[in-house]
Automatic annotation (TrEMBL):
GO molecular function, a single term: damaged DNA binding
Protein name: DNA mismatch repair protein MutS
Gene Ontology terms: biological process: mismatch repair
Taxonomic path: Bacteria, Pseudomonadati, Thermodesulfobacteriota, Desulfuromonadia, Geobacterales
Domain of life: Bacteria
Cross-referenced SUPFAM superfamilies: DNA repair protein MutS, domain I, DNA repair protein MutS, domain II, DNA repair protein MutS, domain III, P-loop containing nucleoside triphosphate hydrolases
InterPro entries: DNA_mismatch_repair_MutS (IPR005748), DNA_mismatch_repair_MutS-lik_N (IPR007695), DNA_mismatch_repair_MutS/MSH (IPR017261), DNA_mismatch_repair_MutS_C (IPR000432), DNA_mismatch_repair_MutS_clamp (IPR007861), DNA_mismatch_repair_MutS_core (IPR007696), DNA_mismatch_repair_MutS_N (IPR016151), DNA_mismatch_repair_MutS_sf (IPR036187)
GO cellular component terms, A-Z: cytosol
Keywords: ATP-binding, DNA damage, DNA repair, DNA-binding, Nucleotide-binding
Domain DNA mismatch repair proteins mutS family, chain residue ranges per copy: 687-703
Length: 862
């Protein structure tokens, strides 16, 4: 047995081998040491106290799944080695072989999966700067591929997918680019041999798996690296998942221009699917919008937000469907009621197709399919094109419902091998065997009463155990009355045990029937499961339709509850939002009413909104809400505003927040500059850019100069001229509005009272003259002495008395003599700028507060 074990283990050296022995999975040697520690189970040994002592441990095979899940969660692969022949018929040692290898992305058992998240295996390959990507969720059968033209594109794809397991060629696994390594973190990385990345070999794998003549069927002819990535996935499945996978029916190609592009930094900054602080769904946009009733709906909503659309027609179809559900409250309520309690059709379908489903899974499928007619009835008479299309896709699969209902017991057992899974009346032979088995119990009771009367032994009992079968037990006090036809089998402390020819014959009949029942039930169940699996494509289409209905109902429910509006989506460069609100912040209980604000971005007068104002006033919230509203609209959702017109964006970029990358030796400022450089190289006229505090990580003049140059570049460049929200504490940047026709100044209104600052949260035209940093420092709990000293220093600086080395700023009485140095002006031709600024003023529409701010601004310019 150990020789057999070691031979199999040699083929799977990186996996913990679960070696089936009877009712247990055993682990030996190093595997046992690792598993015992992680699983907290008893470690023992064979050949104790000898030179050949072998550590081992084990878990029951019928409850092994939780143990497997814990090992996988701890970062280990588990190879499941089963007995592949009947032990009763084996000659010598029972044949065993590995039937599957469990890795994080190859788990299909429901208890090991997160219901509302996909479990992706993502393959990446690279040649000459281009990247191939292919990702598979084995638990649902979703299989997609794409090709990226840069490392940045591959990183964006990795961030969007968030795979549980990353698959690489062996060579790349050793030299994975740091950008990808940091994005994937500590999650599992697996590899295939470099030779697998051969076009002809991968093409053969694809053709064999899907039964097609050429990979061109899936559109892979023009995507050679995507083809290699798909081949990597299929090879990995072939090596680790030996069963047939009929639920993998096709491959969807994701092309670069099909969806709104979002780089990893933007996904993180906008907190689309998880928060930046704790990586949780609650507090993210997804958490705010998710009112789905099914797990497959929750996964689909996440995909819609991760891949917003860029084509106007499909976006409008989604919005029209949401609009109809918003207006038809009764229809919406009927859909939600029908969806609640529906099981995960996608994952049920996958388990059934992979022959991993039990009786309870089939009953769950039946119960879910019973709800499809309710959905169809509710949708009768809908008008929007998308809802009409989903109605057509809803197949109640009445033939499967009838089959499962007639074949599978309403309350099937967990085990498939112990009987009770097939319903009465489904199979005549099974019904007859069950009658024999049930009658056997009555026969034994009658025989016991008959023998008591015949022998006069009142305490006579007929019992059963697995060793002796049925037997008659007589106590010692009645042994003299035992008839001659009783055959003694065993002496026990209380008496003797006997059998008779009649009892033995009936035992063979009854026990034979029970064995035959178990065998026949398992055969019948397999036939039913195969019939259901053959309808996998129909189940898949219905599941997709149900998931989409769930998402549309969720978006409609949120829209009604929070007074969202239907946005107008078009091909223009206009992005206009009336009384827009941040969807997540608005939903939080922060103790104050959320103040809505207007926004107008376009390619003419308002290409760049230069936003100044104090800390804590709401600049970052305002800019993020604009980006989120645009993204929500392109995902097909209503938006938190009174009205909105969204000109389609091809990409959204954000440069928000401070963070370093110590692993790569990059400072906070370096990360900021790299992200800004990426935006300037990549953005187009159709992009939406959010820039928050460019240049703050270096000296004041350096940072101001960089921020000024970036703003000018975004305005003047002929290729990169995106709609931009530009927040800054460099108030000098407000001067750009006088010199650049498509830059508009905005500020956040505040009110000063009693040396306090009150944030009004309202965005108004104009520029700020103060940042109120000291007031914010007071709110943060800064010591009073520090606050007072900061005021002194600020006053000195504002009066222009600060020069490097000057004692006027330092409290020290010892200072080097002051040198008379001239301060160079940062910008030339201030007089011309002042004249231009004055020419553009419209005094007749100014508020008093705006006039005071303007006067302060002009004084500084002069």
């Amino acid at each position: 047995m150990m020789k057999q074990y070691l031979e199999i283990k040699a083929r799977y050296p990186e996996s913990i081998l679960f070696f089936r022995m009877g009712d247990f999975y055993e682990m030996f040697l190093d595997d046992a040491l690792i598993a015992a520690r992680i699983l907290d189970i008893t470690l023992t040994s064979r050949n104790k106290n000898s030179a050949d002592e072998i550590p081992f441990c084990g878990v029951p095979f019928h409850s092994a799944q939780p143990y497997i899940a814990r090992l996988v969660e701890a970062g280990h692969r588990v190879a499941i080695c089963e007995q592949v022949e009947d032990p009763k018929q084996a000659k010598g040692i029972v044949k065993r072989d590995v039937v599957r290898v469990v890795t994080p992305a190859l788990v299909t058992e429901s208890e090991s999966l997160i219901p509302d998240e996909n479990s992706y295996l993502l393959a990446l390959c690279q040649q000459e700067g281009r990247w191939g990507c292919a990702w598979l969720d084995l638990s649902t059968g979703e299989f997609k591929a794409s090709e990226e033209d840069s490392l940045t594109g591959a990183a964006a794809m990795l961030a969007a997918i968030g795979p549980r397991e990353l698959l690489l060629a062996e060579g790349m696994r050793k030299e994975l680019p740091e950008e990808l390594g940091l994005l994937h973190g500590e999650r599992t990385r697996s590899s295939v041999a470099d030779w697998v990345l051969d076009k002809d070999y991968c093409s053969g794998l694809i053709c064999n798996r899907f039964g097609i003549a050429s990979p061109d069927v899936f559109g892979l002819d023009s995507l050679p690296l995507a083809l290699l990535a798909v081949g990597m996935v299929l090879y990995y499945l072939q090596e680790n998942r030996h069963a047939s996978l009929p639920h993998l029916r096709d491959i969807s190609i994701i092309r670069k221009n099909d969806f709104l592009a979002l780089d990893p930094a933007t996904r993180r900054n906008l907190e689309l699917t998880a928060t930046m602080t704790d990586n949780k769904k609650a507090g993210s946009l997804l958490g705010c919008l998710d009112r789905t009733a099914t797990a497959m709906g929750a996964r689909t909503l996440k995909q819609w937000l991760s891949y917003p659309l860029v084509q106007v027609d499909p976006i409008r179809q989604r919005l029209s469907a949401v609009e109809e559900l918003v207006e038809q409250g009764l229809l919406r309520d009927q859909l939600v009621a029908s969806l609640k309690g529906m099981h995960d059709l996608e994952r049920l379908n996958a388990r059934i197709s992979m022959a991993g489903a039990g009786g309870r899974d089939l009953r769950a499928l039946h119960d879910s399919l019973e709800r499809i007619p309710l959905l169809r009835d509710a949708l009768v008479g809908v008008e929007s094109a998308l809802l009409c299309r989903l109605l057509e896709q809803l197949d109640p699969l009445l033939d499967l419902q009838e089959l499962i209902n007639s074949a599978i017991s309403p309350t099937p057992p967990f085990s498939l091998r112990e009987g009770g899974i097939i319903a009465d009346g489904y199979n005549p032979e099974l019904d007859e065997l069950r009658s024999i088995s049930r009658e056997g119990k009555g026969y034994i009771a009658r025989l016991e009463a008959q023998e008591r009367e015949r022998t006069g032994i009142s305490s006579l009992k007929i019992r059963y155990n697995r060793v002796f079968g049925y037997y008659i037990e007589v106590t010692k006090s009645h042994l003299a009355n035992v008839p001659d036809n009783y055959i003694r089998r065993q002496t026990v402390a209380t008496g003797e045990r006997y059998i008779t020819e009649e009892l033995k014959n009936y035992e063979e009949k009854v026990l034979g029937a029970e064995d035959r029942i178990c065998e026949l039930e398992y055969t019948l169940f397999q036939q039913v499961r195969e019939t259901v699996a053959a309808a996998g494509a129909r189940i898949s289409r219905t599941a997709a339709a149900v998931a989409s209905l769930d998402v549309l109902s969720s978006l409609a429910t949120v829209a009604v509850e929070r007074s969202y509006c239907k946005p107008t989506v078009d091909e223009s460069d206009c992005l206009e939002i009336i009384e827009g609100r941040h969807p997540v912040v608005e939903a939080m209980n922060l103790g104050e009413r959320f103040v809505p604000n207007d926004t107008r971005l376009d390619g003419e007068a308002n290409q760049i909104l230069m936003i100044t104002g104090p800390n804590m006033a709401g600049k970052s919230t305002y800019m993020r809400q604009v980006a989120l509203i645009a993204l929500m609209a392109q995902a097909g959702s209503f938006v938190p505003a009174t009205a909105a017109t969204i000109g389609i964006a091809d990409r959204i970029f954000t440069r928000v927040g401070a963070g370093d990358n110590l692993a790569k030796g990059q400072s906070t400022f370096m990360v900021e500059m790299m992200e800004t450089a990426h935006i300037l190289r990549t953005a187009s006229n159709r992009s939406l850019v959010v820039l928050d505090e460019i240049g703050r990580g270096t000296s004041t003049f350096d940072g101001l100069s960089i921020a000024w140059a970036v703003a000018e570049f975004l305005h003047d460049d002929q290729v990169c001229r995106p709609r931009t929200l530009f927040a800054t504490h460099y108030h000098e940047l407000a001067d750009l509005a006088a010199a650049r026709e498509r830059i508009t100044n905005l500020t956040v209104a505040v009110k000063e009272w009693n040396d306090q600052v009150i944030f009004l949260r309202t965005i108004i035209p104009g520029a700020a003259s103060h940042s109120y940093g000291i007031q914010v420092a007071r709110l943060a709990g800064m010591p009073r002495d520090v606050i007072e000293r900061a005021k002194e220093v600020l006053k000195t600086l504002e009066e222009g008395e600060f020069e490097q080395g000057s004692p006027r700023l330092s409290k020290s009485s010892i200072a080097p003599p002051r040198k008379e140095t001239a301060q160079f002006t940062l910008f030339e031709q201030q007089g011309d700028l002042l004249r231009e600024r004055l020419k553009k003023l419209n005094i007749s529409v100014m508020t008093p507060l705006e006039a005071l701010n303007l006067l302060d601004e002009l004084k500084k310019m002069a």
